[in-house]
Amino acid sequence: MKITASAPGKIALFGEHAVVYGKPAIVSSIDKRIYVTIEERSDDDLKISAMDLHIPGIILTYRKDQQLPKVETNFSRVEEAISYVQKGVYLASEYCGKRKGVNVEVRSEMPVGAGLGTSAALSVATAYAYLTLLGVEIKRESLAELGHKIEVAVQGSASPMDTAVACFGGLLQVTPLQTGPSIERIGVNQIPGLVIGYTARETTTAELLKRVRSLRSSFPEAVESIMSAIGSIVSASRRALERGDLASLGELMNINHGLLESLGVSTKRLNDMVYSARYAGALGSKLTGAGGGGCMIALSPSKESAVKTAIQVAGGMPLAASLSDIGAKIED
Ligand code: MEV
């Protein structure tokens, strides 16, 4: 028997990092997904193949005296991605108290580890496919919780934001509470002129979370007020989204980017992309996700093409993706 589950990537519109410290965040699933196919084996082994993770960057060195090139890839990124699958199978099996040897095949429609929530999508889709193969039904809330546990097991810490959106799908406000996250749907389907730009990641999410934590323990009051300011931006953005006020939304994106910068999670390349987008006519722009390279978003109604070109000139790659409200699902 073979089961395929899929889960969407996401963009964080507002509130990343502060959501790890209990503040609300606004996040949306996108129309790019991760597919995990799980097939029963006749033994107890776990075999993972990840042939298409959209991880760019391969270096081939051809030496004069050698027939075959030396191949260097971004192996640590592949390894990191695979650890979510491995932990996913392990924790899903612990969740239901059953175990089976399986072959797992992973395919991604977006670059893995780029800040688009692929680790959450991988965690959720792996657990969903594995449990379904074992004949175990799981409620959406419990799947989101299990996905979050998998992320924490690999990264050390995480908010429930990415796993909630990978599981439920849609444009959501996620507020972490003591009792579990509160998830509210925002009644907006599309945001006009949203452009995503991608650049290579220089640092992992786990490392960035550690950096912010250490900044917070060195300067607790200063960092706590940055987190609170991000929380206020989230409330103002939700109101702006609901009344379709794109100009305010753009300004709020700019403020949110400045605050993320002050937490030390942006990079020169990301800042170049963010500023170039604004100079090309975007109403606002910010990094999205954990930072350290990865993705940025720009709100560019009627200026999409100029903004995409500006992102390219600044060394980034525009990605074609739009908001979608399809959460985790079992494929036919
Ligand atoms: C990563 O997509 C977003 C962070 O806020 C981490 C998290 O919420 O788990 C940086």
Task: Explain what you see.
This protein is of the alpha+beta class. Helices cover 42% and strands 26% of the residues. The protein is built from nine helices and 13 strands. It has helices spanning 75-96, 118-133, 140-155, 161-168, 205-218, 220-242, 246-262, 268-279, 304-313; strands spanning 2-14, 25-40, 46-52, 58-61, 70-73, 102-108, 171-177, 180-185, 194-199, 284-288, 294-299, 317-319, 329-330. The strands form three sheets. Strands 1, 2, 3, 6, 7, 8 and 13 form a seven-stranded mixed β-sheet that branches. A four-stranded antiparallel β-sheet has the order 10-11-9-12. Strand 10 and strand 11 (294-299) form a beta hairpin. Helix 1 crosses helix 3. The longest helix has 23 residues, at 220-242. The chain is globular. The two termini are 13 Å apart. The model has no long low-confidence stretch (mean pLDDT 92). Bound molecules: (R)-mevalonate (MEV). (R)-mevalonate binds next to helix 4.
Q: What's the structural blueprint in terms of helices and strands?
A:
Blueprint: E1 2-14, E2 25-40, E3 46-52, E4 58-61, E5 70-73, H1 75-96, E6 102-108, H2 118-133, H3 140-155, H4 161-168, E7 171-177, E8 180-185, E9 194-199, H5 205-218, H6 220-242, H7 246-262, H8 268-279, E10 284-288, E11 294-299, H9 304-313, E12 317-319, E13 329-330
Parallel strand pairs: 3-6
Antiparallel strand pairs: 1-2, 1-13, 2-6, 2-7, 4-5, 7-8, 9-11, 9-12, 10-11
Helix pairs in contact: 1-2, 1-3, 2-3, 2-4, 3-4, 5-6, 6-7, 8-9
The protein binds (R)-mevalonate.
(R)-mevalonate binds at residues 12, 16-17, 19-20, 117, 158-159, 161-162, 205, 289-290.
